[in-house]
Amino acid sequence: MQPAIVDACLKAGTVKHIITPDFAGDTFSPHISELPLYVPKVEAQKQLEEKIKGTDLTWSAIITGGWYDWAIPLGYYWINPQTNTITVYGSGNQRNSMCRVGTAAKAVCDVLADPAKFKNRPVYVADHTVSMNQLIPMLEEAKPGWNIVKVDLDAFFAEAKRLWDEDTKKGVEVRLLTPAYNMLGTYGIFEENNRYNADFERLIEPGYGYQKPLDELREELKTLVGAK
């Protein structure tokens, strides 16, 4: 879809700046193509940069990590308030940067307000960068009685790759909602050595108030998990 949009923008001649459909993990990490779910985004980025050579069209990619305030109430963020379950992958020490939906929207406005400042580069945006081991006591404070499930990360990754290969053999084309897709994305976040740059706190755009104190997250979690 992105190549068609780029072609349309170039043909129109009036579009000056594109925000690419990232808004998740860091597709600019040098190792990200090891996780096959990200390969289409990496390839689309290469095509974009090739297509706009010699033109006035510029781009920005907004990297946000997970949208936690949307995902947690639905049980999507390894924290399921409906079943009172927290899933810890590996040691639980790997930190990951995460973003509110509203903060991602603010980043879009900030980029479009000054596209020259952000042109032709990733823009890193997150409210918090925390580990599961940091989140657990906050969650216990917000709503006691969580069941903590621990998952061996190496075995989890092996199963994710097996399922991905199995889907490939079956000719699965739409992967977005497959278990393999979600598992590989999860592994990319919790890999213990930050190989895929899930912790991008050091890169967050300064001067825009994106990063918030953990005390703010502690209070917000009470609402997100439905604390009484």
Automatic annotation (TrEMBL):
<dbReference type="InterPro" id="IPR051609">
    <property type="entry name" value="NmrA/Isoflavone_reductase-like"/>
</dbReference>
<keyword id="KW-0521">NADP</keyword>
<protein>
    <recommendedName>
        <fullName>NmrA-like domain-containing protein</fullName>
    </recommendedName>
</protein>
<dbReference type="GO" id="GO:0016491">
    <property type="term" value="F:oxidoreductase activity"/>
</dbReference>
<keyword id="KW-0560">Oxidoreductase</keyword>
<dbReference type="InterPro" id="IPR036291">
    <property type="entry name" value="NAD(P)-bd_dom_sf"/>
</dbReference>
